[in-house]
Design goal:
The structure holds two protein chains of two kinds. By secondary structure, chain A is of the alpha+beta class. In chain A, 44% of the residues lie in helices and 20% in strands. Chain A contains eight helices and six strands, in the order αααααββαβαββαβ. In chain A, the strands form two sheets. In chain A, strands 3, 4, 5 and 6 form a four-stranded mixed beta sheet that branches. In chain A, strands 1-2 form a two-stranded antiparallel ribbon. In chain A, helix 1 runs parallel beside helix 3 and helix 6 crosses helix 8. The longest helix of chain A has 22 residues. By secondary structure, chain B is mainly alpha-helical. The longest helix of chain B has 23 residues. About 7% of the residues of chain B have low confidence. Classes of the chains: A alpha+beta, B mainly alpha. Chains A and B meet through helix 1, helix 3 and helix 4 of A and helix 2, helix 3, helix 6 and helix 9 of B.
Amino acid sequence: MNVDAGARLPCGTWLAALVEQVADNLAPADPEHQVSCSHCQETLGELEELWGRVRELAREQMRAPYRIVQAVMRGIRAQSSLPSLPVPLEQVVPQLVRHALLQQERGSTRIADSVLARIAALSLRDFPAVQPSVGAAETVRGRFLGGTTSGIQITVSERGVVVELRITVEYGLHLPTLVEALRSNIVERLIQMTGLVALEVNVLVEDVRLPLDH
Amino acid sequence: MVLKTDDVHLVRAAQLGDLYAFEELVRRHRTRIYRIALRMLANSPDAEDAAQDAFLQCWLALPRFRAESSFSTWLVRIVTNRCLNVLRSRRAEAFAERNDVRAAGPREVVETHAELEALKAALVGLTPAQRAPLVLREFEGLSYEEIAHVLEVTVPAVKGRIHRARLELIAAMRQWR
């Protein structure tokens, strides 16, 4: 088979027409000639066989690694640089840092909300199937806090500590059971490290992902 | 029943700065974009880089996206151009690779999947101008019109390039029979 561009078969048929017919799955331009012509039949047979490999390659299953998604989102968050805000007030006046207050015998102990959030965040590490969610708003806040408390919000009122948590969970797990275990773990860690009892640990399961995605 | 939010809604939300929406778009389109990059660049680390760069570029250009074409086609355009740039910048090495491929004999290719490996090698041998439309046609199933739109050339030009690319592949594959 002569495969030069513009080549013709001995019967006069353009090779280009046959290639297009096979590759684009078209009906023959001249079916009557084609069916009876040995040159056309031979060439078509060979082209079908060769082009079958291209089709096979096209059918090859692939899945882009999930780290592409992570890398992209990391890149975007790094780019959306912090606006030139004035220095946050709490950095100037430490007493203004939001905190939980413990009155102890020989003085007061303040534990910053960010510390409580970090404790909650670290306690999540005991659950490999759970990831805290990361959102645009948290990015800014998360940077001040060191970036590890995304998806976690702490509110300290007179009544006590409330933890708000947004998470992504691996597909297939029983969510109420998992969340309850998570909740107990956070409460225990907080008591263990601060003596504070969390009144509520409110969990929003925002997304489920296939284990493959991680 | 699985209800999937339309790309259109996600794109609109992402344009307003919703990173979750954009992340979902990346999740949805990553395999296609990565596959194009892999067929264009023929190695996975470069393909991953190109896919990431394409999505980042997409995010930066998103405020200017006017939905004249579908988001998907727009992304395909970005990644294709990204890959063409990569190929252009490594033209010297690509040239060397091409010569290597031509020099390698059939026996050097592992027996299993030898035919597909030969085809991949033949793809690497195509010029970028031929490879891009061929990849979009044969592996992504785009129409000639869509390819013309992506590459910003005329439909006859696309047809001509794809035809020459097909003949090159056929000639290369015949050597390995």
